[in-house]
Design brief:
Blueprint (H helix, E strand, L loop, with lengths): L2 E8 L6 H11 L3 E12 L4 E6 L2 H14 L5 E3 L5 H12 L6 E3 L14 H11 L5 E2 L3 H8 L6 H12 L6 E3 L8 E7 L4 E7 L9 H14 L4 H17 L15 H7 L4
Parallel strand pairs: 1-2, 1-4, 4-5, 5-6
Antiparallel strand pairs: 2-3, 7-8, 8-9
Helix pairs in contact: 1-7, 2-3, 3-4, 5-6, 7-8
C-alpha cells in the first residue's frame, strides 16, 4: 500500500488539519501518517486556543517515520512560526526526497492573516524549494506575490511569479474569485490548465483547503502525474462539498467518505 505523511496541526472538531488529511488519504486507498505541529481547541464555530509543538518534536516525528517506512508523498499544512518552518526544512532535507505538497496557510477564508510577514518570508524561502506543488488560495497568492488578483489572467501571472520563487508547480485555488463557477489555475512552469466546477451553495466548507491539498498528495503517492493528480483531487473535493455534513452549530465539514458511503448504501 502507498503511504503519505501529513505535517500539520490537529483540529479537535475533526473537519480540517491532521484529521481531514488522514481521512482524505484513507479515502484514496493511501495509508496516512502524521507529524503534528500544533494542537487546537476548536469546534465548528471558532478556534479558542492553539498550543504549538516543540520544533524538535516536529523534526523528530518526521525523521523517525522516514527511518522506518517508505513514504510516497508529504503534505505540509499550517505551520505558524519560523522555528517550526526551520525544523520541517531540516527534517525534509535529511531524508529521502519524495513529492511534497505545500498548502501555504497564510490567509483564512475570510481574509484574516494567519502568519506574520517574517514567518511568511521564511515559508517561501525555506519550503517552496522543497515542494513539488504549492496550493495557495487567492488571498494567499496575493500575499505571496504582492499583486491584486481579479481575473484568470491575474491568476496566471501570480502562478508564474510563484514559480519564479523556486516552486516547481502551482495550483491557485479560485474559490474566492466569485462567479457561478470556481476556477483553479494549474501551472507546471510550461503549461497552464484551468479546472472549473460549479459553485456549490453550502456553508459546510470547513477543511476544504486541507482536503484538496491532501487529495493531491494522495494522488501523487499513487503515481499520478501533476495534472491528473490535481484534476482527480478537484473531482474529489467537489463531491465532498456536495455531500458536506451539517455537524455542529457553525461551519460543518466536508464529507471525506461520501463515495464509500454511497457504495455501501449508507446515508450520511
Amino acid at each position: 500500500m502507498k503511504t503519505a505523511l501529513t505535517i500539520a496541526g490537529s483540529d479537535s472538531s475533526g473537519g480540517a488539519g491532521i484529521q481531514a488529511d488522514l481521512k482524505t488519504f484513507q479515502a484514496h486507498g493511501v495509508f496516512g501518517m502524521s507529524a503534528i505541529t500544533a494542537v487546537t481547541v476548536q469546534n465548528t464555530q471558532k478556534v479558542y486556543d492553539v498550543q504549538e509543538m516543540r520544533p524538535q518534536m516536529v523534526h523528530d516525528q518526521i525523521t523517525c517515520l522516514f527511518d522506518d517506512a517508505e513514504i510516497h508523498a508529504v503534505k505540509i499544512g499550517m505551520v505558524s512560526g519560523i522555528p517550526l518552518i526551520e525544523a520541517i526544512e531540516e527534517a525534509l532535507r535529511s531524508v529521502k526526497r519524495t513529492p511534497v505538497v505545500l498548502d501555504p496557510v497564510m490567509i483564512s477564508k475570510s481574509g484574516y492573516r494567519l502568519l506574520n510577514q517574517d514567518a511568511q518570508d521564511a515559508l517561501i524561502s525555506r519550503l517552496f524549494i522543497l515542494a513539488e506543488v504549492v496550493t495557495p488560495n487567492i488571498y494567499e497568492a496575493e500575499a505571496i506575490t504582492g499583486q491584486d488578483i481579479r481575473t484568470i489572467e491575474d491568476m496566471q501571472d501570480a502562478a508564474q511569479k510563484i514559480i519564479d520563487m523556486d516552486a516547481k508547480k502551482v495550483v491557485i485555488k479560485g474559490g474566492h474569485l466569485g462567479g457561478d463557477h470556481s476556477t483553479d489555475i494549474l501551472y507546471d512552469g510550461n503549461y497552464y490548465k484551468q479546472l472549473k466546477s460549479p459553485r456549490i451553495e453550502t456553508k459546510n466548507t470547513h477543511g476544504t483547503g486541507c482536503t484538496f491539498s491532501s487529495a493531491i498528495a494522495a494522488n501523487l503517492a499513487l503515481g499520478k502525474d501533476f495534472f491528473d493528480a490535481v484534476a482527480d483531487a478537484k473531482t474529489y473535493i467537489t463531491g465532498a462539498i456536495e455531500n458536506s455534513l451539517s455537524i455542529g452549530k457553525g461551519y460543518g465539514p466536508t464529507n471525506h467518505f461520501f463515495d464509500l458511503y454511497a457504495k455501501a448504501g449508507i446515508k450520511s
